Amino acid sequence: MELRELGRTGLKLSSVGFGASPLGNVFGSVSEQQANASVRLAFQSGINFFDTSPYYGGTLSEKVLGKALKALNVPRSEYIVATKCGRYAEGFDFSAERVTRSVDESLERLQLDYVDILQCHDIEFGSLDQKLKEAGKTRFIGITGLPLEVFTYVLDRVPPGTLDVILSYCHHSINDSTLEDIVPYLKSKGVGIISASPLAMGLLTEAGPPEWHPASPELKSACRAAATYCKENGKNISKLALQYSLLNKEITSVLVGMKSVEQVEENVAAARELTASGIDEEALSEVGAILKPVKNQSWPSGIQQS
Ligand code: NAD
User: Fold this and answer.
1) Could you tell me how far CA 243 lies from the centroid of its own chain?
2) What's the whole-model pTM score?
3) CA distance 22 to 30
4) Active-site position among 56, 88, 169, 244
């Protein structure tokens, strides 16, 4: 698995990262045995980056991921863990007091002494706190959010070095590539770039998105049509979508949510195949044409827009 440098952090992340929200049963239920086997296979296949949050499954994802990582029985320095703060099943709280407590709670659930990256989760709903880096409980600080403007808004206002990483989601997949527009800006600010949800949170899968997916009916139906086109032509929409997301090497890691050994196998194989023989340009162009009417269509997120 290819390793890419994350901004100025010195961390080298696998190009495919393990998104652990499915381990919180966010995309249907996952047994502990399945979770352990998925994490183990991912690690053995060269995936060294694992992303979670206290929000996923109301803390379940952190607990399950923590157990699975511990069961690997390898030195802590061999894997990179990111978690988040500020967003919880009960709601948002970015206060210094809650964030400080939050990181201790996360460390306990993850059974770790430190996380590599602590990210303020979906900051369009709140603001940013910085103290924890100094306490040694996280090595690097990041922010996550859906609207791309949150990144430029914050980075335009904080002193250089305040933020190490940004995590964007659903903006670097076949149906929405708007993250590309701000990559030069992010690079100029020296922050590492993580892109999540290459499958657009399930839109670009044969099984389709979960019930809670916020996309418009129009976007859902176009993605369904793209998945059907792939199936009917012996292609796999998820493979194509992940490979598309991996094409831009300025993006350090593409976080894909995985809930089974089969999905880990498929996603690792997709990355390897991309390196060996490139992307299926014909399928990409056909799927691009099907998705053109909904290209770059997103949905509201955050206080101002809701
Ligand atoms: P995703 O686009 O990665 O899609 C996940 C869905 O696709 C799940 O249902 C999964 O089971 C399925 N899937 C995975 N591999 C597949 C394959 N090969 N074939 C068919 N289906 C497959 O969306 P996501 O999980 O939301 O995003 C990835 C990760 O990024 C999350 O787990 C989380 O760690 C992170 N994330 C963070 C934020 C944030 O910070 N605000 C937001 C979104 C995602």
Assistant:
1) 15
2) 0.95
3) 7
4) 56
